[in-house]
């Protein structure tokens, strides 16, 4: 009864992807809620990798020089090492948990490699992408000819039906820009933020800002997952705001303590200043002939 309740909380997709890389897959029959967070996190890492790879493939072409440098060869050597270890693990009683760890090691290194867009080589990226897809397709958790995991709800639709919601958003955004153009840059910025944070998430599009002077990138994600992500960020923002309200009070108390100490220090400085001034005045009153008598050769 407990086992049936647990499985109802997870989709077939989550169970399929999660169990492949879990000890539960081959050694443990205790399917509990405790074992699922690891599987969910692993799926998130894979998903994010495929999203980043899609962005890199969109933003780069083979027209750029593809000659490999030290970083490219280093990543290629890691690919060869992972391929060897994966092969040995699969020969060892089909050890899928170890295979997933090796793939995640390769994915982590490739994510770091993709951050340097100027020196990114599509040849090495495509090799790695093809290999990871091949392994996941062999496990039955990825379809042929696709990059990333297909949504449960994905179906074949005609082109017009596919682009209609996006064109509606684009048309509405254009109308709002025209209507608020006289409001100045601030109004335009607000509309852009609204598009990114409120409108596009409903279409399953995550628009990410990058550094100054760099174009934003978009990623196609599950709308429900994106809503949860934005909800979590909003909760963190509210929590941070509450913490910031407490800080001014603490700072005010500290300033109050400093003010109590300041009068004493100020008084000491004034007394020291008066003392030095009195000594200078005393020296000025000494006649010149007496003053030079006090000076001795050193």
Structure keywords:
2 strands; about 70% helix; about 300 residues; 10 helices
Number of strands: 2
Computed Rg: 33 Å
> Could you state the order of secondary-structure elements as H and E?
HHHHHHHHEEHH
Strand count, sense and closure of the main sheet? 2 strands, antiparallel
Q: Which strand order do you get reading across the main beta sheet?
A: 1-2
Write a brief structural summary.
The chain is mostly helical and about 300 residues long. It is about 70% helix and about 5% strand.
Describe what you observe in this structure:
This protein has about 300 residues and is an all-alpha fold. Helices cover about 70% and strands about 5% of the residues. It has a two-stranded antiparallel ribbon with strand order 1-2. The chain is elongated.
List the SSEs and their pairings.
Layout: H1 2-8, H2 12-20, H3 36-59, H4 70-91, H5 96-114, H6 122-138, H7 159-179, H8 185-199, E1 205-208, E2 217-220, H9 223-284, H10 288-294
Antiparallel strand pairs: 1-2
